[in-house]
Amino acid sequence: MKKILLLCQVGKKVGLGHLVRLCILKDLLKDEFDFSIEILNEAGISDQSYKNDLFTKEIDFDLIIADGLYVYDHISSNLNSNKIISLSYMSDINKHADLLVTPALNGHKQEKGHLYDLKYLICHLPKSKLDNKNKINKKIGFALGTFDVDSYGEEKKEYLKKNGFEIQFLKQEENSLSLKEIIEKKILEESYKNFPFYEFEDCDLVITQGGLSAIELSNWGMPIIIRTRSDFKKAYNFLDKNLAGVGRVESNDENELLKKILILSEDSKIKNHQKFSFINHDTMRESWRNLLKSLTA
């Protein structure tokens, strides 16, 4: 089998989505490629030691799939590979990579060396459908990544409560764990396989940073508001363009947020907005199998 290194970055700023995405990919194709995994701690998570025997000590690979903002120094100093793929549209490895697989930028002008096709999306899939009742519960969910690095949810919580909304945050026990404990939970216990948003079933909508959560919530049928952080390139334009039930805020203005919430939560047709019916594990598996075989031939 061809040897492929899955190299990801975790941390307070970048969260755990890179790790989850690569674990899903590994699980889909584990019988067809010899995958190894390595994790870089971006910073901010306590206890930076973890079990080295969980990860590869090899340095030579047929392909490296890198998913993180800051991975170039580690790759250039410590690893050898025939080719490199980047899954992060803002990574420092991108100008050195052979290919960027960035479906988050679908809807942008196609750039050379990028694959924007949505068939390369990697995400969780729910096992049960969202029961979209045509009623308003005045309940807002927040799914702002594992660490909500700039405390956006906490800042907006009291304002929305004053305007009559109940607030629910996604349970995130990882933000109190060490890196070692996070890795053991995600990889050894295989918690990465779990669809994380069932607890939002009674919410009118969910506010998210984008990333995996925006895709997964929309695919489930939940209306969302994407809060675009100023230090990240605007992405997921295809959600805005192709789905009802998707709003976006690009500032910290509370009145703008409230206006978007009222529009989305009170529009009855939003409750049954179309899903990404083309996202399924068969499509993910086949698309990535063909791509990885071509790159390692």
Task: Explain the overall architecture.
It is built from eight helices and eleven strands. Helices cover 29% and strands 19% of the residues. The chain has a six-stranded parallel sheet with strand order 2-1-3-4-5-6, sandwiched between helices. Strands 8-7-9-10-11 form a five-stranded parallel sheet, with helices on both faces. The protein has helices at residues 17-29, 72-78, 152-162, 179-188, 211-220, 237-242, 254-266, 281-296, and strands at residues 3-10, 34-41, 60-67, 80-86, 99-101, 114-115, 139-143, 166-169, 205-208, 224-227, 246-249. Helix 5 (211-220) links the parallel strand 9 and strand 10 (224-227). It folds into two domains: 3-123 and 279-296, Rossmann fold (3-Layer(aba) Sandwich), CATH 3.40.50; 139-272, Rossmann fold (3-Layer(aba) Sandwich). The protein starts with a strand and ends with a helix. The protein is α/β, with parallel strands linked by helices and 297 residues long. The longest helix is centred in the last third of the chain and has 16 residues, at 281-296.
